[in-house]
Design goal:
By secondary structure, the chain is of the alpha/beta class. It is built from 13 helices and 16 strands. A hairpin with a 2-residue loop joins strand 1 and strand 2.
Amino acid sequence: MSKTNASLMKRREAAVPRGVGQIHPIFADHAQNATVTDVEGREFIDFAGGIAVLNTGHLHPKVIAAVTAQLHKLTHTCFQVLAYEPYVELCEKINAKVPGDFAKKTLLVTTGSEAVENAVKIARAATGRAGVIAFTGAYHGRTMMTLGLTGKVVPYSAGMGLMPGGIFRALYPNELHGVSIDDSIASIERIFKNDAEPRDIAAIIIEPVQGEGGFYVAPKEFMKRLRALCDQHGILLIADEVQTGAGRTGTFFAMEQMGVAADLTTFAKSIAGGFPLAGVCGKAEYMDAIAPGGLGGTYAGSPIACAAALAVMEVFEEEHLLDRCKAVGERLVTGLKKIQAKYPAVIGEVRALGAMIAIELFDGGDSHKPNAAAVAQVVAKARDKGLILLSCGTYGNVLRVLVPLTAPDEQLDKGLAIIEECFAELA
């Protein structure tokens, strides 16, 4: 009996907890670049990229070759027991790429949540303080500490009770929704007046472009003021680049476009082309604040994942993927704005930094009426037409595009055509 998506969904429901969500009722069988084929043999254009994990596409030949070569050497020793060169080489390359004119060191771990957890640990050790300020709409992970930092209760922490204390919430600047740079800075000052003294705050953590929150881009001027405020009070600035890093925004790290450097930077997702790898890079003096044994993990910095990440960085250089990122972003944004012009009552805004692209939908063009229902319809209709899309946003009213940067123009155009068809059917 041949496998079907429906039969596998039944097995999944019986074997996997319902808390593990699934956006599309599809089981992938194999993939290549920006095309995924399901177990029934149907092909889909992948505008999701495993949620920003596949900037170099599915199964990039250079990444696969590097992983294959590493498989014939060793798969695991635990770096804290027996070290291996790919870990060190990757840290050297990350140190050179992360913004900041200062000596850096890098810790490798396995997941983005783990990277954020460790960034907070490092900030606390380096400052002797415990508090952390995060922002509205933030997404920093699903472990207990990172759930506290994440600014969205449903579905991430619903029913789990209160998250760890010592976390305070500031307003993320968002001109579309009436939050100015002044408003955001004032919200931090209110925390200092009402909740915690600056000397009790170890770090302020921010996504230069919000991910799950809706792909809102932090204004450069805001980042400069935030950096100055952190310097004034001896607070470490953590840039969460788990989703924005590895070339998604047109520079290898989004903070390169913000005019300031963070003290600590987290990264993950596309850094290893689909293999689990994450990390924290920061000022050497802060990274060294924790004594030997206080950082690491059994699988942290897997040699397989390190080999993949080194290959990813070579692909970016050889294939000029940062330039390609800008071209992909421009092509898609131009096409999406043409669609917006046809359906202004539904599409409120098309925004992007590089190829990190969002389409925000409103009811009747009213920015106070988020249209999550329309987003759900577009995602479902697009899937039926062979295009995989994702939604995001505090109110679920944002479509996001995270297509592999290696996708050919023909696929980008076909994806745009499908999106336009979906909006035509909504009208």
